[in-house]
Specification:
alpha+beta; Rossmann fold; 2 domains; 7-stranded mixed β-sheet; 6-stranded mixed β-sheet; 7 helices; about 35% strand; elongated
């Protein structure tokens, strides 16, 4: 059962994978488009689309419940599950009555909205976190991150990242791993440690290649000061900077303008906190791993 099918993007993928799908949507025009899409792609024999309210679906009559609640309102995108359509209490009721379920949600879903016993998976596509999915009725409850298009998956092991001094490299974990609270697992992969216990930047001494983090070689670490940073970059003849930040309130575009750089080289700088002190990491001008 696809309980809020829209124009059919998800149920078409399910049908292509061999599933027989019953689907509902509240809007008659959307349902007509969804039916036309199924017919046009030769999948009409696998899909039945009806006008209906997700709240009236009986998930216990199906092997699997799938739902992708609408996350837009008249005022634009919403990040509040209570404002989803159908709203979160309806979604939870459907999940509770389904033998198995998969629900797509915004990647920023607060942890307190994740139902007990569900596996929460965050999905990153080419380095950008796109979706989260909640799975119930199967083994593997916990947290998971998945990278596409490579298909790499990382699951929670309970690893905790130590905190320690800066090494030769700084690693920036993929956003899916950060959202899934798997920074400790990434730290274990690169044999690293956190620069600050509250910030998801990892430092290490060895150049370890992993799809789970971008790696930058550290040239210098300075207490944050726009004047000192400008002088350090000019000394290195840097005219173009890629600016990253986490745990910093600095306005990136204003800083870029204030730096007034005109050199021929490029660099990556990272604005962050190190043991609660505003800092800037100047990284090697060569491309990151």
């Amino acid at each position: 059962m696809d309980a809020c099918c829209g124009i059919g993007g998800d149920f078409l993928a399910l049908a292509r994978a061999g599933c027989t799908v019953a689907a509902v949507d509240t809007d008659p025009l959307t349902v007509a488009v969804a039916r036309a899409n199924a017919e046009a792609l030769g999948l009409g024999d696998r899909v039945t689309v009806s006008v209906g309210d997700a709240a009236e679906v009986r998930p216990e009559e199906y092997d699997v419940l799938f739902a992708d609640p609408a996350r837009r309102t008249g005022r634009g995108r919403t990040f509040d599950p209570m404002a989803y359509s159908p709203p979160w209490p309806v979604v939870l009721d459907l999940i509770s009555r389904a033998s198995r379920a998969c629900v797509k949600v915004a990647p920023g879903i607060p942890y307190e909205f994740i139902p007990a016993g569900a596996e929460a998976e965050w999905v990153s596509y080419k380095g950008e976190v796109k979706e989260a999915a909640l799975w119930t009725g199967q083994e593997g409850a916990g947290r998971r991150a998945t990278l596409l298009p490579g298909g790499h998956t990382l699951t929670a092991t309970g690893a905790e990242a130590p905190v320690g001094p800066a090494g030769r490299y700084v690693y920036e974990p993929d956003g899916a791993a950060i959202r899934a609270h798997l920074v400790g697992e990434v730290s274990e992969i690169v044999n690293g440690r956190l620069l600050d216990p509250m910030i998801a930047y990892i430092t290490g001494d060895d150049p370890i290649d992993t799809p789970w983090a971008a790696r930058y070689e550290i040239e210098d670490i300075l207490p944050f000061s726009g004047k000192k940073l400008r002088a350090a970059l000019r000394e290195r003849q840097v005219g173009n900077v890629t600016i990253k930040k986490r745990g910093s309130a600095v306005d990136i575009e204003r800083l870029r303008a204030d730096l007034r750089l005109n050199g021929e080289k490029s660099a990556t700088i990272i604005l962050t906190r190190i043991l609660d002190k505003p800092s800037v990491i100047i990284c090697d001008t060569s491309p990151p791993a």
